[in-house]
Amino acid sequence: MTSSQPLVCTSLHLPPDLEPFLRIHEISLHVFLPNLDRLRLALEADPDPQAINIFFGTRKVSREKIQQSFRVLHLAQGVAYEYSKVLKALSEKKPTQELLLEAHIQAYTGMGCSKKAQQAMGAFRRELESAVSQVTAIMNNKYRKGSKSSLTSTENTQAVSEVLSAIDECNELLKQCHNQFAELATHTQDEGSIDSNPPSEEEPQLMRAKWQTFYDNIRDVWIHGYKVADEILMPTFDNPPNAPEKRKCRQIFPSWRTLFQLQDKRELVRSTSGIAESLDATLSNGPASKVPFWRRIYQRTNRNNSTLHTRYPCTPGVHYSF
After folding, report:
1. What share of the chain is helix, strand, coil (3-state, %, to 5)?
2. DSSP of 269-303, one letter per residue?
3. Average pLDDT over residues 278-297
4. This protein's superkingdom (predicted)?
């Protein structure tokens, strides 16, 4: 009786780890947005034209720098799209050289974009520290004249601290994204590597399931991220008073952990019977009918923030679809 051997993929590559990409989105939505909005409201409660103008400039910079991070997610989506085309061609016994080159270009571009996003996070941190220093000096001067400010309250000081810590975490996450892009770029740099060393029939099927799962979960997250960044600059609603309590709940049960548990379950289902037929149907007819978690978030935000008009860094009319 022979024992089953684990599948070893020699010429194919696993998708990147989803966690750092989605964690960047979670930080932007649950840390950057509410805390920067809280500071804005504190300044508006004790208005000083100079201080408000300084912090508006900071929000403008933060929007630009945060969007740099979401370009990384956009490229991760592109990598998934291109590599899935490689796997589809492989399953149809077609050449993969040109398709593998496109995947390599996307991964290589992702490396550079991740580096730029790290630099952007550093600039964001310096801008915030400078603004806090300037605004604090202005408010301290007013305080000596008898005008007491709430900007230096414990809650607002904590808000600044949370944003700075989140910036540092994003920097580390972007390093992880860069490393994953680099690994994939190295693995795909030889255009003929797959055709010259074809995998077994099982490998493309399992790989397509994993890449499909990655794509399903990262698709269009970057668009919602851009809307979050827009909300930081031009808010359409005020930060709710009970936001700190909500943030504490999110820290105890992070939404991305639940998402990864669901991802594991989906991969288990995909790796069982009928995988080839179901994936072929997905590639031919578009995404599965079940709307992914992050797409539902985007759709709700799109309805709520229909007044936002932002030009996104993608070609008009082009939409990734399996």
Report:
1. 75, 0, 25
2. HHTSTTHHHHHHHHHHH-S-SSPPHHHHHHHHHHH
3. 45
4. Eukaryota
Query: Is 117:69 a contact under the CB 8 Å cutoff?
Result: yes
Please count the CA atoms within 13 angstroms of the CA of 52 that sit on its side-chain side: 9
271: tokens are 């790796």
Place of tokens 């000083």: 48
Nearest-5° Cα angle at 281, 277 to 282: 120
C-beta separation of 94 from 194 below 8 A: no
CA distance 210 to 216: 10
Tell me the C-alpha distance between 165 and 294, whole Å.
24
Residue 94, judged by CB atoms within 10 A of its CB (0-12, 13-18, 19+), counts as exposed
- Res. 283 pLDDT band, cuts 50 70 90: very low
CA distances for 146 relative to 22, 44, 87, 140, 155, angstroms: 46, 18, 69, 10, 22
DSSP character for 44?
A: H
Give tens-digit pLDDT for 261-271: 444 444 444 44
Residue in 190, 214, 220 with CA at minimum distance from that of residue 104: 190
On the question of pLDDT at 196 being above 90, the answer is: no
Residue 70: count of CB within 10 angstroms of its CB: 25
Three-class secondary structure of residue 200 per DSSP: coil
Q: Render pLDDT for 53-103 as a digit per residue (tens, 0 to 9).
A: 999 999 999 999 999 999 999 999 999 999 999 999 988 889 989 999 999
DSSP designation for 32:
I
Q: Find the helix packing angle between 97-144 and 49-91, rounded to 10°.
A: 170
